[in-house]
Design a protein that fits this description.
With 250 residues, the protein is an alpha/beta fold. The protein is built from eight helices and ten strands. It has a single domain, classed as 3-Layer(aba) Sandwich (Rossmann fold). 36% of the residues lie in helices and 27% in strands. The strands form two sheets. Strands 6-7-8-3-9-10 form a six-stranded mixed beta sheet, with helices on both faces. Strands 2-1-4-5 form a four-stranded antiparallel beta sheet, covered by helices on one side.
């Protein structure tokens, strides 16, 4: 479980300070698929980076299963990320000199998994995300959607407890975006890993269980899918976007 308690984040110095996050608090249960939306500059990516330990806090606390982030020593943080966190970014962040299979397997090898067990694990996950026939190809030889599915496979190959996705469909066409969201939603159910996703796309957000809306660094509102259909939840998300003041969500 993730607990975000009164988190604040400031940037700048010498009288030129920007408050990116303003006293944000919420709790996310194990296995929840949570989406963060808001206008440009609302603080959504900053919040994601703070929760994922990629950025520091100015005030407040974030707890992982009751353990305060501030108590995790710097020397332990890298190991904590490798064991517990997976990351998916808009620009894929694949290594161009490695095949898709090698990109996926790299995190297994970094975590000292038995090399003999790696090919079977990579092949199984590649099958689940629909890129098994492409494992011998390089990133430049496949489509953007296939590269992003590879990036997602790499993020979850170590079965992390938490997956962080920052605009994972931002560089994809609509068909590839929906395919990725279907895969993320299905694996969220089977792996029971928590997913925190930043997106500007209401249709992508409708795959989540809950949506948080940020405005000017503050938690503005939230909606929960519950028993609603995906269509009804999608329209409720659009209503939530409109309540932000008609700003372009991006």
């Amino acid at each position: 479980m993730i607990e975000v308690r009164n988190v604040e984040k400031y940037y700048g110095a010498n009288g030129n300070v920007t408050k990116a996050l303003d006293n944000i608090s919420f709790t996310s249960a194990d296995g929840e698929f949570l989406c963060i939306m808001g206008a440009s500059g609302s603080g959504k990516t900053t919040l994601l980076n703070c929760i994922s330990t990629l950025d520091s806090l100015s005030a407040g606390e974030i707890l992982f299963d009751g353990v305060p982030r501030s108590t995790i020593k710097e020397a332990e943080m890298a190991a904590f990320r490798r064991r517990n966190l997976g990351f998916v970014f808009q620009n894929y962040n694949l290594l161009d000199s490695l095949t898709l299979g090698e990109n996926i397997s790299l995190s297994l090898l970094v975590n000292a998994v038995d090399p003999a067990a790696v090919p079977a694990r990579v092949a199984q996950l590649a099958h689940e995300v629909g890129i098994e026939p492409l494992l011998d190809k390089f990133p430049s030889q496949v489509s953007g959607g296939e590269r992003q599915r590879c990036a997602f496979a790499r993020a979850i190959i170590n079965t992390p407890k938490l997956i962080f996705a920052d605009e994972p469909t931002g560089a994809l066409d609509s068909g590839s975006a929906m395919k990725l969201m279907q895969i993320m939603g299905a694996l969220n159910q089977t792996m029971h890993a928590s997913i925190f996703m930043v997106t500007h796309d209401a249709l992508c957000a409708s795959y989540a269980e809950r949506v948080l809306f940020l405005k000017d660094g503050k938690l503005f509102s939230e909606i929960v899918k519950g028993e609603k259909s995906k269509r009804d939840f999608y329209h409720e998300i659009l209503d939530g976007v409109s309540l932000l003041g008609g700003q372009t969500v991006c």
